[in-house]
Specification:
3 strands, mainly alpha, 12% strand, 7 helices, 187 residues
């Protein structure tokens, strides 16, 4: 009974450190990536809700990349912490088998590897497809947000728009289109 509590204590300490480190790395990387996605709002004219949904859909991809590193760091921190508190020395002198402690580490590594494989092969492709469809479906709805009144807009390659004004219904009035790339020749 005592050994089961010891094993669960070791397991809980490593898992607690792992989750803390993983969430910290994910928050930092997600913030950096979300700042890079600001281009969606500024240049492409998507609204803030689309930007937020798109950046949230990329979180599992970030998590999957940091699972191995977080586990290695959490295992190292946990072992160093156990050594500083002399917990491992106490466990060895009471007759705890070192091989069983290593088996706990391997068991945790196996489950985290399985978690990463599922996340990388099933969840991430689904969410990547969902984020792409989110941008694809809202692109035609947000066309007017790229065009501003009394301003030239060259957000589209080879096409320059000038809109004199917009009315209350967000309709464009007096539009000038310069098609340098020949994009409208097929219409």
């Amino acid at each position: 009974m005592l050994k089961n509590k010891i094993y669960s204590y070791l397991f809980n300490e490593i898992l607690k450190n792992f989750i803390t480190i993983l969430l910290t790395f994910t928050a930092i990387a997600w913030t950096v990536r979300a700042v890079n996605f600001l281009e969606l709002m500024v240049d492409d004219g998507y609204n803030s809700l689309v930007y937020f949904k798109y950046s949230v859909l990329n979180i599992p991809n970030i998590v999957a990349r940091f699972v191995p590193l977080s586990f290695l760091i959490s295992l190292t921190i946990s072992i160093i912490r156990f050594e500083k508190k002399q917990e491992l020395l106490i466990l060895w002198t009471t007759g705890l088998n070192k091989l069983k402690v290593v088996n706990i580490f391997l068991l945790i590594a196996f489950f985290l590897t399985l978690f990463q494989i599922i996340l990388s092969s099933l969840v991430n492709p689904f969410l990547l497809n969902k984020s792409r469809s989110l941008l694809r479906d809202t692109a035609s709805v947000q066309f007017n947000s790229v065009l501003r009144s009394n301003d030239f807009s060259d957000a589209f390659k080879g096409i320059t728009f000038y809109v004199d004004k917009k009315n209350d219904y967000n309709e464009l009035i007096n539009i000038f289109i310069k098609d340098q790339g020949g994009n409208f020749n097929t219409i």
